């Protein structure tokens, strides 16, 4: 080691950052799998799966999970249907006030979610969309679409128009050009946009809380409800279940597309 | 009389108020290798895109084998194109890239495989069929581009500066490859370039373009030996341009009034005499002969097979000369005689502005 203090500082700051991010997560996991954890103990005294069994007994876990996934899938579809044409227009055409347009699309992510949620709730009560999967999915589009549009704009912008020209010269009409050239080139971006949209909906709590009902309890809401009932460890168990798809997606995503591609789109090769 | 493979009739295209193409008329017979030669922005690439149909002309007609295809969409025209940027599909292997146009034409799998193998063999890439474009060098990628453009036997092969993105060392090799493939297939080709050496070496015919017009159309030899104006002359490599004035059948150097012995029949008024650097002869200071000027060696560079000189004439004119290896070498500051052989000089009228 040439410069030990610098190496220690660098290693220490990375470790600190990882701990800072993951400590709350570790606490939840300890809560979910531990028993007799009181006072000043660093770790639980015993390990158990009791809280998961309790969760299964006190809560309709299967129903809640089905609700969550159903809403997330709907929200993903809506978000893609909405953001693909928008992103294509922004990326491929000269539009007036382009930056303003992108700003407007990102706006929902910049203001407090609760503010938006209040407005959404007001509308949903008026037109009876509360406690419906479609309604909640629509609400989630507000959260999912900005991510999807961002990813897709950079995907479409990075698409080499000469490849489309090459396809046309080689005999592709508009429809075949889309299937054989445009779609395969855009696929990594589309997958990333879909995953982001899915997770935005799957993880959402604030918006859902304002418009959910007895038939549309989602995992984040259920976690909150269990906590409200005083079962800290049951809440921990449910949020651990909540965590699984996110982690799976993250792993899959990192394998499929490199982080640079997620941010920078698919440039060239 | 057989129809030419490609005929352009008074094709015009405007970008805003600027005429990108003005009144282009060209006939390309079957099997001809035609080059569109010109500086960037001269309209040569726009003309290529008018032929493929990705740019539709504002005026005029495009005829292929006598049929008017001006209104036909690009994908029905059966053109083949090689791109400067290669434009290979990154998600497909070499074989799948070459098979792409065959898949679009719904050929059977067996025939596809056979034709792809043939095309890849033609460009010496059969060993690379299963690689992806990103795993190939630039030269190899462009050979895939060439194979992909000819595999479906297009009516016309269009090449848009295919060598510009390659290393200098690869260009000659690739140029020969293109020439061989085109000749072997007897295909009609239109080749866009700004490099006069490529155009001269490859083509049966050259159309020199400037400001959206075809300035001269002819064989490489015609273009090289008899450029119609100063633009063509300097573009095909005449390094020395000397302003002269023609009066009563005699040419005088504008710089100092010295007589230049050169054929100037039919000419009158301001003109420019051009000569290639390699045609300029250097002789010892006191040598005699026609069109002899005394110059000082300003700079010289040893280029391996020849020596490049930059010479300064007392009247302010600079002359470039290439002397073959083996000739005497003159150092900086020496006075030498520069001889401009009258049969190597060409004179074109100079527009007075």
How would you concisely characterize the structure shown here?
The complex is a heterodimer of chains A (269) and B (353). Helices cover 78% and strands 1% of the residues of chain A.
Per CATH, the class of chain A reads Mainly Alpha
Task: Report the oligomer.
Answer: heterodimer
Report, as a whole number of angstroms, the end-to-end distance of chain B: 44 Å
Chain pair forming the biggest interface: A-B, 21 and 27 residues
Distance between the termini of chain A: 39 Å
Strand content of chain B: 25-35%
Considering DSSP H and I runs of 4 or more, what fraction of the residues of chain A is helical? over 70%
- SSE succession of chain B: EEEHEEEHHHEHEHEEHHEEEEEEEEEE
CATH class of the largest domain in chain B: Alpha Beta
Uncertain regions spanning at least 5 consecutive residues of chain B: none
Q: How are the strands of the largest sheet of chain B arranged? A: 6-7-8-3-9-10
Structural class of chain A: mainly alpha
Largest sheet of chain B: 6 strands, mixed
Q: Tell me the strand order in the biggest sheet of chain A.
A: 1-2
